Amino acid sequence: MPDKAKAAELEDETDEEAAEPIAEDKSEGEQSGKLPEDKDETDEESEEEANDEEELDLKKVKKPEYYSATTFLNARHQWLCGFFSFLQLPSAGYKKLQNWLQHVSQVQNILEALDPNGDNITILGNNFGDIVWTKWVHPHLQNNTKAPGTITSYLTSLEKFYMFVTSNQYNKKDMPPLHGNYLDTFKETVSALKGWRATVDNETQHIQHRGFLKECDTILTPADLKGLEESKPYRAGIKALNEAKAGKNSHFKNLQMHAIYS
Hints:
Elements (H helix, E strand, L loop, with lengths): L3 H12 L29 H8 L11 H4 L7 H12 L10 H18 L16 H13 L4 H18 L14 H24 L1 H15 L2 H8 L2 H15 L3 H12 L1
């Protein structure tokens, strides 16, 4: 198993590559400012599944060995390793390696964005847990530096992390000490995160709608529509509708009479 020097080596191998676990997906043409560079769902299963399908650039996240270490660089590293193990349990969804790396990397990225030189996770408890919203979510929303789906994916990863930290699924004597006030804050924030994701969704409806419209522009071309109108099923359908309107189609006429007198 890697010792402390090996863990440091694994960390250094990926630090220069910037840990942005999800491909850059800034809203096109909508940046109005920049944030300091940071390294980059559980109430609704469908939401989580959709977010978990976002593709990771595995070259830009730390190796699984870094999160499987038994000798740790600091308390933050130890918490992340514990979280990585927790993600492999049925209670955390029992997903694939790619999903584990996504969640643990996204939590690490939030920690490093809020406290780049920190060695613990206590920064997440500042301002009664609202620091993640005020210093990370809100700036990204204001500056359009992360897509709505990416933000909600990060918040889902954070929710899983809080679930782990406040659970009884690890030996607390083997983990770094965490003051009771932080545990209370994390427990309260777990229930708040559903509302946070709903707020992100509400605040970014215009961005999502523009995305849907852009997709619609490429779904059917004029040539596709012309081909549809010239197809045999389309012509047969139009003929049947016209006959029904004119009362010439006995099948539709019988249905119409049945509807009137029943």
